[in-house]
Amino acid sequence: MLALPLMLTACEWFTDFKRQPSIWTWEPVKDTLTPSRGNPQMSVPTTGTAVAGFQVSYGAFPATIDSMASLRNPTPASDSSLANVRKYFQINCSVCHGERAMGDGPATKFGMPGINLTMDMTKGRTDGYIFGMIRNGRGLMPPYNRIEEMDRWDIINYLRALEGVNGKTVEVGPLAAPGVTGDKVPGPTRMGPNVPAPFFKPRNLLIR
Fold it and tell me: Selecting from 3.90.1150.10, 1.10.645.10, 1.10.287.3510, 1.10.760.10, what CATH number does the domain 62-172 have?
């Protein structure tokens, strides 16, 4: 009977979720050097940005977008660029502009005006101007700043191929059936650092 209290105190009979596994944002899992989680979307990129918010606002105004018209596309229209961005175009753009950017997307069946991006007027727009349209939005087009900056330039390369102005041929249409994930949907963010900060100390190293 005297040993019974000692045996009972060695066990936890009531679990209230105070002690459960948890992982810090940059904490590596087990013996790997890869952090378990990366930065969230809209993180500040370590490589800089073409137009920062303090330089040009995110307002959907014609003059604001015109101010970005002189930006030069830093991404060449390579095969990897065009292959990477097809999913971004089909997910974000084709719903209004159509799979071939001819303004016949499914949203037009519900009253959305069909905006054809293969017309001469759009062909005459600079890459920087289209970048600004994706970044800020304008008129009926909402801002698509959720598309990260490197992918926006890829989208412009893809659009130029659909317009037939860069000599490239691209595949069109969805990459897979609805619900398929993996490499058929955008992956984790590529903005911000991809290694822990040098001063970071995992929790298991702090408790000794």
Answer: 1.10.760.10
